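Hey, sorry for the delay on this. The queue was backed up all week. Below are the sequences that define the complex (chains, strands and the ligand SMILES where applicable).
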Amino acid sequence: MGYDYRPFSTDFYRINHLISETLSIGLGLEEQNAVTIDINKELDHIINNIKKHGVHIEWSPEQACTLTLAPLALRRIITNLLENAIRYGDEKPVYVNCECNKEMAFIEIMDGGAGIPPEKIEAVFRPFYRLETSRGSSTGRSGLGLAIVKQLADANGWDVQLISRPEGGTKAVLKLP
Ligand SMILES: Nc1ncnc2c1ncn2[C@@H]1O[C@H](COP(=O)(O)OP(=O)(O)OP(=O)(O)O)[C@@H](O)[C@H]1O
Ligand SMILES: [Mg+2]
């Protein structure tokens, strides 16, 4: 009979890793300098990388949209929201749209999946919270994605919302002042 030399279960190590990941993101925020970037270029870069894996994303970048902000926080938020739209979007196309003026930008990510019941919208932002339908899947997800999104948005004074679309699916809206 083999002897298990580790004092805790694999789950313990996995959760420990996840917690420290979240903490490190939180603690790194104050150190992150704001830089002036073109949001459309940033979105284009992220989306083109995902498209290489054969994912259908509808996205047509318009004119430059320049804002001064923490770029890593933005990248992480967009990536987490896009990842959800793809994972829970029932393999239907994902639509991304960015509108901006001199003072602010609105980024929308829409999917055609089963959606989130309106009464669960608040809960899905909690750490480790996953809906019944996704909990059983063997994807090894942790339920931290949206908690990180919320934490990063709050720390930067951005607004993030999830909306159940009447025609089905979910719309994520990120407002950057
Ligand atoms: N676009 C979406 N459509 C339907 N359900 C969603 C969508 N986005 C999130 N959810 C639900 O909210 C839960 C929490 O999402 P969150 O991103 O925090 O965690 P996760 O995707 O399960 O894991 P992780 O992002 O940590 O890998 C998901 O498990 C899923 O049930
Ligand atoms: Mg996720």
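Residues 10-28 form the longest helix (19 residues).

I'll add it to the shared folder too.

S.
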